[in-house]
TrEMBL record:
One of its GO terms (molecular function) is initiator methionyl aminopeptidase activity. Belongs to the peptidase M24A family. Methionine aminopeptidase type 1 subfamily. Keywords: Aminopeptidase, Hydrolase, Metal-binding, Protease. Binds 2 divalent metal cations per subunit. Has a high-affinity and a low affinity metal-binding site. The true nature of the physiological cofactor is under debate. The enzyme is active with cobalt, zinc, manganese or divalent iron ions. Most likely, methionine aminopeptidases function as mononuclear Fe(2+)-metalloproteases under physiological conditions, and the catalytically relevant metal-binding site has been assigned to the histidine-containing high-affinity site. Removes the N-terminal methionine from nascent proteins. The N-terminal methionine is often cleaved when the second residue in the primary sequence is small and uncharged (Met-Ala-, Cys, Gly, Pro, Ser, Thr, or Val). Requires deformylation of the N(alpha)-formylated initiator methionine before it can be hydrolyzed. It is an enzyme of class 3 (hydrolase). Monomer. A divalent metal cation 1 binds at D94, D105, E232. A divalent metal cation 2 binds at D105, H168, E201, E232. This is Methionine aminopeptidase. It catalyses: Release of N-terminal amino acids, preferentially methionine, from peptides and arylamides. Substrate binds at H77, H175.
Length: 251
């Protein structure tokens, strides 16, 4: 079922999003060669608790951590670990914050030290693809318009779009309908309506778009060892420009 949120529900989600943004900004200050993603995960769990919130994905279908931490060729759902991040790594930290029942979801990719030119370009293109998708997320448009905007831009820049994982509706639980693919055809799919809350979260690879699963049953990585980057926002569909609840630049 697709739910459309009331003004009060959106306000609750915005409060969760504000805390999520603050958490990401703290993480950005922590990211450097030598830190571990387990240290980041421990910080997030404690920081959210101190602010009266919880990491919603902890315990979700048995998942054990407050964050997903995906490094280099890991596309998504990487487990936090005690391995130190190295200079030149690319790491995506993804989390869902629950603050008094309001949910917000955002992934952000971080450069660890000095990343090479291709890695930097992959990050730039993925972030731009996210915002091109968001631009299409308006009342009356269709889900396919979002995916088409992302796919045509990313592939035009020489990268590939992961197809095995999608954005989604959010609230009252983490994953709600509709699915939001980051590829597709314009004027196809579910019609967007005012009050819908969704995530847009393109995962863009430098090589082949296909994924393979690790033995842990959670972590997806590229089939060719190429790096993958992801940026994600939680947004609200309105009559006009979509509201980006998890926007970092406006905080």
């Amino acid at each position: 079922m697709i739910t459309r949120k009331s003004e009060r529900e959106v306000e609750q989600m915005q409060k969760a999003a504000d805390l999520l943004v603050l958490t990401h900004k703290k993480i950005a200050e922590m990211i450097k060669p030598g830190i571990t993603t387990m240290e980041i995960d421990t910080f997030v769990d404690k920081f959210l608790a101190e602010h009266g919130a919880i990491a919603e994905q902890k315990g979700y279908n048995g998942y054990q951590y407050a964050t997903c931490a995906s490094i280099n060729d890991e596309i998504c759902h990487g487990f936090p670990r005690n391995e130190k991040l190295k200079n030149g790594d690319i790491v995506t930290i993804d989390m869902v914050v629950n603050l008094n029942g309001g949910l917000a979801d955002s992934a952000w990719t971080y450069a660890v030290g000095n990343v090479d030119a291709v890695g930097k370009r992959l990050m730039e293109v993925t972030k731009e693809a996210l915002y091109r998708g968001i631009e299409q997320a308006r009342d009356g448009k269709r889900i396919g318009d979002i995916g088409h905007a992302i796919q045509t831009y990313a592939e035009g820049e020489g990268f590939s779009v992961v197809r095995d994982f999608t954005g989604h509706g959010i609230g009252p639980t983490i994953h709600e309908n509709p699915h939001v693919p980051h590829f597709g055809l314009p004027n196809k799919g579910v019609r967007l309506k005012e009050g819908m809350t969704i995530t847009i979260e393109p995962m863009i690879n430098e090589g082949d778009w296909r994924s393979q699963m690790d033995d842990n049953g959670w972590t997806a990585r590229t089939i060719d060892g190429g790096r993958s980057v992801q940026y994600e926002h939680t947004i609200v569909i309105t009559k006009d420009k979509p509201i980006i609840l998890t926007e970092q630049d406006e905080q």
